[in-house]
Amino acid sequence: MTKRILQLTTVLSNQIAAGEVIERPASVVKELVENSLDAKSTQIEIDIEGGGIHLIRIRDNGCGIVKEDLPLAFARHATSKIATVDDLEAIATLGFRGEALASIASVSRCRLLSKAINQKDAWQIQLAADMRPSISPIAHSQGTTVEIADLFYNTPVRRKFIRSEKTEFQAIDDTVKRLALSYPSVSFRLTHQNKLVRYYPGVSARMNESSRVEKICGSAFMNQAISIELEAYGLKLHGWLGSPHLLRRQADCQYFFVNQRMVKDRLLNHVIKTIYQEQTGLSEGTYPSYVLYLKVDLGDVDVNVHPTKQEVRFSQPRHIHDFISKAIGEALVQYPSVTRTLASKTQIFAPKMHQSFTATPMSVTPQRYALHEDETGITLCDLEKGRESFLKTYLLGWWGRITRKNLLFVEEIPLSPELLADLRLLSWLNDLGYWIKIKPDCLMMMAVPNIFAHVNPCEFLKLLIKEIVTSKDKNAICEWLARNLPLQSLFMLDHETFIA
Ligand code: ADP
Ligand code: MG
Hints:
Blueprint: H1 10-21, H2 25-38, E1 43-49, E2 55-60, H3 70-73, H4 100-106, E3 109-115, E4 122-127, E5 133-138, E6 143-149, H5 156-160, H6 165-182, E7 187-192, E8 195-200, H7 206-217, H8 219-224, E9 226-232, E10 235-241, E11 254-258, E12 261-262, H9 266-280, E13 290-295, E14 301-302, E15 313-314, H10 317-332, H11 338-342, E16 355-358, E17 369-374, E18 377-382, H12 383-397, E19 404-414, H13 417-420, H14 423-431, E20 435-438, E21 442-449, H15 457-470, H16 474-484
Parallel strand pairs: 1-7, 11-13
Antiparallel strand pairs: 1-2, 2-6, 3-4, 3-6, 4-5, 7-8, 9-10, 10-13, 11-12, 14-15, 16-17, 17-18, 19-21, 20-21
Helix pairs in contact: 1-4, 2-6, 9-10, 12-16
């Protein structure tokens, strides 16, 4: 017999939606705190009881909800964040699907209290088991409080998947950490069983952002972290890279935010791990740690690809991954590689080459001779004679990984718009070890290749740019540099692996 088709009740269809979005108490915390953040709150308090299964209470000081809109807040597909399909092209809020409150309310006992900005009175809305709302006056300061009790009380299947209170609270704690990292200016307080567990006071400028990162990732991470900052091609990246020597056995300190949204990007994780392994000798079974913030044009990232919005799609993923890996690769050069630190000061050669090169100058004629050792014995090298070939070999061999040295003062070099848009030029400068930022009419130089320490940075860069623009390949550039760099440049190399 054919089964007849029935329209699902509101409660049931909301419960089905909840199956996708609300996996565990931590998911409720994520959705509610995201709402508070979208409401421009500066203070968010999160009270948890029984791992979030008994009670989740979130209180904020955001814009609030006006009385007339209270029932709508719990209606499915009702949102104040988008109105037309065009809005989907550039989503600036964390939420936009209009599903969270409806889903949460369908699997819990729920009430919401709110006083909207510029309103005299506060109102409370409570939902019956069939989602019918009742509204009554209440006392509340500006902002919103949402209380979720007895999560999954009416969905026994979901309840079965809930782990111990401790584990569930741990997941909430992790969620709050991510949210706190993505909005450092907002103050967060988290309690469990009436005990204060976390307090992250709001921090203002970028300078202080690091104090929040330190609070969440620990001082072991922060003390040795390299901070990175890069802006090019409409992308902005900043953040901190953990030392490869931290040897974390878990991938538990990997945070990537796109436009203040915590994002899981498995490909990017993999790319970053590979760079760490190749460049620092990070061993198998250990994980790099990082906190990275990427800013992309809203139109270049699609956040509407995942129900809990944890994944995003970039319009040009290759471009973005390349940009990030470049930035990281360049920054990591500052860490001596494990293989490089293992090599003693007098034998600094790639072991597989069976050769070593010591840049410790002979005392007779300082800075002119070096010992060169291979299986046939030790040879004395005249550096002056070998200068060009040493430098060229170094530049080619370390292309893309050349150590750099920060300038004491940032130098600005005016350049024509064509040159500033010349991608080959910019990427070669980057590969040679320059750290530059592009401004509309000039190039800002923050760091120069270590081996260029003995030349005037601005003058030399101008010459180099001319050379790069007219030369046909990297080889020609390395030859030109080898001809034009002074002998002293070689002595900047003593900690480098020298590929002969
Ligand atoms: P979405 O966030 O996708 O819009 P939600 O179901 O999470 O959907 O919330 C529905 C609406 O309720 C929001 O669009 C917003 O207008 C309002 N809202 C929810 N929480 C808050 C809050 N803490 N402060 C102010 N408004 C809120
Ligand atoms: Mg929401």
